Amino acid sequence: MSRDGITMWLTPFLARPIALIGLCVLLAMVIAAAFAPWLAPYDPYAIHPVSRLMPPDAVHWFGTDQFGRDTLSRAIYSARMALLIGAGVVLFALITGIPIGVFSALFPRLGHVLMRMVDVLMAFPSLLLALGLIVILGPSVANSIIAIGAGYMTTTTRIIYGLALRLRAETYVEASRSMGSGTGWLVVKHILPNLISPLLVQASFVFAFAQLGAASLDFLGLGAPPDIPSWGNMLAESRTFITRAPWLLFFPGMMIVLTAFSLNLVGDALRDRLDPRFRDVFSGEG
Amino acid sequence: MTTTILRVSDLKTSFNVKRSGRKYRVNAVDGVSLSLVAGEVLGIVGESGCGKTTVGRSIVRLVQPDSGAIEFKDTDVLSARGQTLREMRLNLRMVFQDPYASLNPRRSIGDSVAEAGDINKVFTSRAERAARIAETLTAVGLEPSFATRYPHELSGGQRQRAGIARAILPAPAVIIADEPVSALDVSVQAQVLNLMMDLREQLGLSMLFISHDIGVIGQISDRVAVMYMGRVVEMSGARSILDRAAHPYTRALMAAVPRPDPSQRIAGAIETGEPPSQFNRPAGCAYAARCPLVSERCRAEVPQLRPIGADDKVVACHNL
């Protein structure tokens, strides 16, 4: 996996321009989040009552909101919240999903019980589950991560469980057991390394859906505090001005769509790379 | 002076199987006794499902037998714990059938080959580990540089060589080879067989060689045990099996070996039918339904192994 590995991972993107575009959009988002103070033309919190609800022009590219705040600056700063929520939810899903899934596969007796509990959680629509948890925990950024993460932890756990069950039966795992390896060895040397690539795909999809989940919570006023710039908050605040200042909804809405769409493109490309049935078609390798 | 290095006595292993909602108990191995003399190759031959693989897997404790005993150099394998078990694990090693599935695609060949040593903390330094890997790879006819490669870069034959390398590092006493050449094509089969015979000479290995191919078994084994439906039906020296097959099932197996000259075929021993269902074993001899020599007694009483003729041949048949 050194240089060979890098080209191997890049091939599906090079072979499909649209996936490459997705990757670039995500990269742009990361840059926006990292360098927001330098990229944003104005202070996203600065209120200018004089220039309220200005349509997009040369001074304010995305226009201004009802408090005269620059929409472009707020949209750029929002990338931070989007990345934070996305990364947080992915991390939450993996940190809970990997131990539960792997444990359940290796110790079927307790595993069956655990997986049935995961199934119960899975029966709730994820937004409903997130709303319920927010009501219990109270609205905050950390709690939105937990609330949204709980929904995606179930699918992640199921995927890990299925993969681990299959890996457990592999001949090389048997070979390892015949040489006296314990559970720790099997997990670290055989199971986890084989989970990395499928989980990368899963992570990209969870990241995408987390964006939508976070936007929904913010829109309902149950996510990040309203003064923190986030695309969902921007939509929520300006929804009453939809006829007078449609740009206030258009730009953050577009950002949500673009981010989720790009993540899905990247996820698709990664999945095709990992699924041997598609590998020939898109990357030309055997 | 011959010493028995591995002794299997009256081994019984069964599995729970669910078929259309009903639970069955399948006796995969039903009272097998074998002994392996130090330095010899004992072939186990039989059709799929006869329990030959389960015998091998029971010995390395991948499955828990119901009853019976397995002794390695006078120590009980099945009750071994701690340090004794660790030593046993290093001495009783397995080569698997499918060279594609038996190596982890995410681990380098070197890591796979050194696995037994790593698990049991055999190596004292990284340098020693690297040296042992290189030495072992050379022993199986691979370049030492293969240590840093990954399974997908290797051919089937090379992978099986790596699988054998894994089984001989650090220094085993007994290799249990479960169909080690069945997944390879014929020309590669010969190479791998030769390698195994060379290694046996060089390292003084004893081997339990499991295969469904009586031709391959005849080539590599000193003695052969023929299994049918979880039991040994005939056991004797390899030549004696090949030339003077006694049990009707062994004769049928011999007749099934393709021969370049059709007129050399053994007449009248071609099998008909299938083995009886594992879920519903007949009383008496399991081979009765397919046997040309079948008599009334066969359907009622299970034949026991008894000596027949010269050269230590034992056969389980009422009609010989």
Q: What does the model show?
A:
The complex is a heterodimer of chains A (286) and B (320). Chain A is mainly alpha-helical. Helices cover 75% and strands 0% of the residues of chain A. Chain A contains 12 helices and no strands. Chain A has helices at 3-15, 17-34, 36-39, 71-106, 108-122, 126-137, 141-168, 171-178, 183-219, 231-238, 247-274, 276-283. In chain B, the strands form 2 sheets. An 8-stranded mixed β-sheet of chain B has the order 6-7-8-3-9-10-12-11, sandwiched between helices. Chain B has a 4-stranded antiparallel β-sheet with strand order 2-1-4-5. Chain B has helices spanning 52-59, 82-91, 109-113, 115-119, 126-139, 156-168, 186-203, 214-220, 238-243, 248-256, and strands at 4-19, 22-37, 41-45, 67-72, 75-76, 92-95, 174-178, 206-211, 223-228, 231-237, 306-307, 314-315. The radius of gyration of chain B is 20 Å and the shape is globular. The mean pLDDT of chain B is 87. Chain B has 320 residues and is an alpha/beta fold. The interface between A and B is medium-sized, with 18 and 27 residues.
Describe the structure concisely.
Helices cover 75% and strands 0% of the residues of chain A.
The average pLDDT of chain A is 85
Radius of gyration of chain A: 22 Å
According to CATH, the fold-level topology of chain A is: MetI-like fold
- Spatial ordering of strands, largest sheet of chain B: 6-7-8-3-9-10-12-11
| Count of beta strands of chain B | 12
Strand residue content of chain A = under 5%
Biggest β-sheet description of chain A:
none
- The quaternary state of the protein chains shown equals heterodimer
Return the CATH topology of chain B.
Rossmann fold
- The amount of beta strand of chain B, in percent, is 15-25%
Helix coverage percent of chain A:
over 70%
CATH class of chain A, please?
Mainly Alpha
Full CATH superfamily name of chain B? P-loop containing nucleotide triphosphate hydrolases
What is the terminal-to-terminal distance of chain B? Answer: 32 Å
The total count of helices of chain A amounts to: 12
User: Which stretches of chain A are poorly predicted, pLDDT < 50 over at least 5 residues?
Assistant: 278-286
Overall structural domain count of chain B: 1
CATH C-level class of chain B: Alpha Beta
